[in-house]
Structures are given as C-alpha cells and as structure tokens.
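Morning!

As promised:
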Amino acid sequence: MTVEPTIAASTRDNTGSRGSRLLGAATIVGLGVLGVLAFVLTDADVRIHPTTGEEFGQFDAVRLLYVHVPLAVMTYVAFGLCAVASLGVLIRRTPWWDVTAHAAAEVGTVFCGLVLVTGSIWGRPVWNTWWEWGDVRLMTTLVLFLMFAGYLALRRTTGDPRSVSRRAAVVALVAVLDIPLVNRSVEWWENRTLHQQSTLNDLKIEDLTLFTLMLGFLMMGMVLAWLLLHRFRVGWLERAALDHAVAAAIAERRAETPDAEVRRSVGETEDRS
Amino acid sequence: MSALRVVLRDIRLVAARDLRIEARARVVVDQVLPFAVLVLVLFGFALDADHRTLRTFAPGLFWVAVLLSALLAVQRSATLDAADGTGDALRMSGLPPVARYLGRAAAVLVQLLVLEAVLVGGLVVLYGVSVEDWLLLGVAGLVAGVAVAAAGTLYGALALGLGARDTLLPVLVLPVLAPVLIGATRAFDDALGSAAVDGWAWTGLLAIAALVLTVVGASAHGALVED
Amino acid sequence: MSVVELRAAVALLGRFPALSGVDLTIHAGETVLLRGPNGAGKTTLLHLCAGLLRPESGSVQVLDHDLTDGAGRRSVRRRVALLGHTTGLYEDLTVGENLRFWARAAGLSTVDADRRLDDARKRLEVSDRLVDQPVHTLSAGQRRRTSLAALLARRPDLWLLDEPHAGLDQSGRDLVDGLIGDAVAAGGTVVVSSHELDRVAALSPRMVTLAGGAVVDGSGVDVPPPVTEPSIGQEDS
C-alpha cells in the first residue's frame, strides 16, 4: 500500500505562468506611469502662508506619499490575509492555508519595512527628523514589523513542520489582536501625533494628484498580488518536495529487508532463553 | 462538582505544583531575583548614577527590568515540563489545557509579583524614589503582571515545544508586550509622582490588555500542547 | 473485542517514517510481547497506541477510539497507561507529592486518590520511608516503581510498557511481572516491549515482531479472538 503525497509532483523549474507574466508586465508598465506622474507631472506641495507670505508645505517630499500610503494599506491587506489564513491553519489544517499564511506574512513584512523606510525618508524633510517616537502610526507600524519579523524567525526554525505551522499561526493571530492595543497605548502616550500636522487632509487632492494616488493604490495592489502569487507557488513547491521526501522515506523503510535483522534479533533472544 | 469548580480545582492543582517546585528548587529566588536587581544597578552605572535622573526614569527602568526578568522566569517555567517526560505524562493525564495554562500563568504571576515587590524596594533604596500612591502602584503592578504572565506563559509554551529555542522567546513576546510597557510605565509615573498623567486610565488600558492576553492565551494554548 | 486495531498505520517522527505501515490486532485480555531490533519502531508504536502521536495515514483504533481524530486521541489517553523511558515525575517534588499530583490530575478526588495510592504503593513496595523523599534522591529502580504506582492508581484499560524491566534489580523485576499478571487477571490488556524475553516468556505472551517500522510476524490480523479466559495468551500466528 503506498502513501500518496498530498501535493502532486510538478516538473516546473520556475513559478511563472502566462497569467503571472501578464500581470508582471502590466505592473511594470503601470509602475513606470506612476513614476512619471508622481515625480514629474504632478506639482510639489508648495503653499503660501496667508499672513507672512512665506512658502511652506511638504515640497517635493509629498511625492513619496503616492507610494508610502498605498504601501501602508497593502501592508494591512497582506497581514490581514495572513491572519485569516492562520485561522484557516488552526481550523482546517490543509497545506493551502499554511502556505498562504507564510507567503502573506513574508510579503507583508517586506511591504511593512518599505513603509517604514519611505515614511522615514518622507519624515526627514517634513518633520526634520529621521524618526519620531511620538507618532502613532509610525510606532504601531514598527511594532507590527517586529512582531512579524519574529513570525518569520519562528518559521525558519527546524522542527516538526506541522508543529511550526501551528505555532506560527498562533503568533500571527496574537499579533493582529495585539495591534489595536499597541495603537491605543501609543495614541494615549503622545496626545499629539505628527502625522496630523501634515496629512493628506491638508493637501489639495484633486484632479491629477487624486488620479496619481489612485494609480498608486492600484499599482501597489498589483505588486502585492504578483509577489504573493510567486511566493505562494514557491511555498507550494517546497511543500510538494517535502511530501515526496516523506513518501520516499516511507517506501524505503518498507523495503528494508527485515529477514536478516529479524533472524538475528530472534536468534539472539532464543540463545538467551 | 460543577464544571467550573472542577476547572478551578485543576488550576489550583497546577499552580500549586509549580509553586511547590519553585519552593524546593528556588531558581527564581536564587537566580532571577538577583538578576532583576542587577539590571537596576546596571542602569545606575550606565546613566551616570545621579538620583535626580534615576528618579525621573525610575518607572521605565523598573518595567524594563521586570520584562527582562520575566523572560527568565517564563523560560524556567516552560522548561519544568521539558524534562523527565512530564509533558507527555500531562497529556496522558487528561488535565484540560486551559487549566494547565491558567495554573502555570498563575504561578508565574505570583513569582512576578514577588519580583515587582523586591524591585520597588530597589527603587526606593537605590534610586531614592518615594511612592505617592501605593494603591495605584499595587493595582497597576498587579494588572501589568497578569498581562506579562499571560503572554509569557503562552509564548513560553510556544517557543519551548520546538526544543530549546530560548532565543526565540524574547523576539516573539516583547513586541506583544509593548503596550504593557508603555501603560505600566505611565501608571507608575503617576504613582511615583514623577509625571502628571492619569495613572488610573492607564491601568484601565492595562486591564484590557491583561484580559485580551489571558483569553487568547487560554484559547491558543490547547492548540499548542495537544495534538 | 479488539482493544487495538491498526491497519497500514504510518507514523512520522519529524520527517522520519518510524512506522511504515503497521497491521496489528490485539484483543482484550491479551498479553503481547513486542520485540525487534533497535530502531524498528517499538517505542513509536507504543506512543501511537497511547494517543500521543498523530498517525500519518492508515487506520488506528484503540479501545474503540479513532486515533486519526484529535478528539479520539485525547479520549484514549486517559484510559491508557504508558510507561516510557522517562520517569514522568517531577524531580524536585517528593514521591508523595508526585503521586498525589498525578492522581488528582487524572481526575480522582482526594479520598479516592489516597485510597488507590495506598494500594498502589503497597503493591509496588514504595515504602513509607520513600514518600517524603524528593524524586531526584531515588535510585532508578525506586523511580520506576513510583512511576508504576502512579500509573496503577489510574486503573487503565490498556497497559503499554516500554522496557519495564530495564535497570531494575531482581526484586524490582519480580514486582513488574506481578503487576503485569495482576493487570491481565483483572481483565486488562498489556503490551510489553522488551528484550528480556526469558522473563516475559513466563507470562505466556503472544509474540509480535517489529522490523523496519512494520509488523513482520504475529500481527494477529487473521486470527480469531480467544474464546477462553483472558489469562491464556498463546496464539499461533
């Protein structure tokens, strides 16, 4: 009787497919358009102070927001997906949920890191500091990043794979449940938040600016989808390889000719008795 | 015996076991407590020991010392069932995982409260701190302790079950406890009179954190130790 | 009525297939001796039957519980006594504290626990002198007897003993044999994994040989259940 691996073998040597290549091509084109719009065609945020007549505003830094804000939203989407998939791991326990959770966590962490980096670069000219402890969103994003960095560290430990995937699922769920607490505590901690000093609300979001921002959301969504697709497929192939290794090990163990060993052990004990 | 009384009995059984082991082996008292005091001393050296500075930062330094020591205490607690096959024996016994979790967390809480009490003494003696509101101090310390014990026990079981992954525990549990650190420090700021904040409001937030972490811990623990 | 029924059971330890397809039937009241070379999977088989291991594939039925299901595994554990290579005792606690903890953990009330523990201690000659001593001061033989006393107090339906005689002196081994005999006489089922065939042979067990993660002899699959009393155990396979 053979043990069938849960995931069928695959002979592919890459994770591309017609659909994913199409998506990738469209994404590259779209990112190009976004780049042109964000960094060339739209205006920098320059406003004139009503009383002093000075220029103020975010100037060119505002261009980063077309990427930073969509990245942040996509980070929540990715981690949200990870949380849902983690629930799936604990309740349904099929490999699909597990691979999805891992892929979403990994891509989400990358996006989260990018949010922190773009946010920091944006913050330098606007707030005059690389890092602002009192900013609620920045702090919450940092803690989120640390939590999922821990998740990824856990994933990389050796050990019974089922055990690791269950524990990782718990970590992801606790992280997601903890975030509101983190948010609230940081918010109370600093009554003010620099995020409110210069936000989207202040900017004139209309026409081209609005379009560029919407395009930013679309593009970051497509980048997320593309990365998730490939990361999922890599995970799936890893899973298949593991299943096959196990099936091969089982067959090999069965094929171990027991006769010689059994005779030896039975012979030994018969001698003793 | 109603189901609730049975669970409570089981919780008491598990907590008593852990505390009895600690009473015999004295690992927390001999090793973790001195470590906690040592952290306070190290801060004194590092911050250029001057009473005024230390008094200002006392609440923060206190809670960092508590968190670092809690890591050790939790690790110790998690390893109690790693040797001698008692982990498997517990699974064979039929003790519900909820009782195992809450009992262990309760024992960790007791140890943490002792730790906190000693450290408050350390603050008074080493940092020259004076306590304005003992009630607030006590309640905030208790509630934050529950949160730390709850999260620590869950993650201790999580990290331990993979076999000697002590280095993983801090990375997993400390970010989750960030709100507890923030909240407890502000509550202590108020209790020690070093800042004008509403300590009781913060304690309320800590209570919510403690509740969430305990409920999540009790629910998730079963998935980790059972099969 | 079969107490243990395995068909093509596969069990993994990490990625290693410790059991590669076990067929085994054990009936109520039987004494089974599990033998085979080291690495054959004897310990894993005992853990599987105890409900501590999730089977990768195949069917595993113990005491009418389906062990491929998590709930089934949880239910079967309370009815089975597993003596493994470890003591299952807290080293820092005394013998008495350990026994009382494990009895109460199994759900016994204080009164029942004390009564059963008194009997168990007498049966396994765990003297009163030992009761207040921490386990880490005990010899290997004394620890083994304490572990068995803890298991005895639970009155299991199925005993799974992994090399119970190893490391014991003569009187200790006699006690183990007596325990097995009592269990079988009381209608229980005992599975012993041992290299000490001369000792266990006296109990007239049915021999099951394990090698390469599968049963190569004595699986009892096509053998009808014994019609006479449980104390007769010899089968032709």
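The longest helix of chain C spans residues 170-185.

Hope this helps with the figure draft.
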